[in-house]
Predict the structure.
Amino acid sequence: MTGLVLILLLVVLLGAYILVHNGLGRAVTQVDQGWAGIEVQLKRRHDLVPGLVTAVKSALRHENAIFDRILDARMEAVKAMAGHDPETMAQAEAALAGSLRGLIAYAEDNPDITATANVATFQKQLEETEDQIAASRRLYNGNVQNLNARIVTFPGNIVAALHRFRQAKPFEMTEAERAVTYERPRIEL
């Protein structure tokens, strides 16, 4: 009888172990999927930048410094994306977003730019992409929070330590992005 109870206890413990391990595995997969979603949206923004610059450049041939800053920021953001480090990417993306905000602010002060249909089209696509980036960031950070909670709570912490599961880094806003978030400019190109 004691042997049967012991076997039953081992089966229950093994089942719990498997459930916890599989839950951690699913959480890691969700984090990876969330990260892939962020990368897709950031690539979309990176791909929009040259077209937007070209569209606006045709209206403003004398403002090369603005365009150079934007293209340099885009290049840094593309490089940061290759490193897959959320902190580095957040900084590079904040610099790119700041450069784009500068262009948009400049365009708002120059009505001849807003009359260009191409500029309006790119501006709308950029706004949609920014919304998708924000949604992807929320999904990723939620998945990171879920994974990290599983890793630090019992019994997940035991299984995580045995299998070397690591906490993931959230894709957080930089201080500059936080400041802009509370003072969102109205964009009308």
Summary: The helical segments are 2-59, 64-83, 86-109, 111-114, 117-152, 156-163, 175-182.
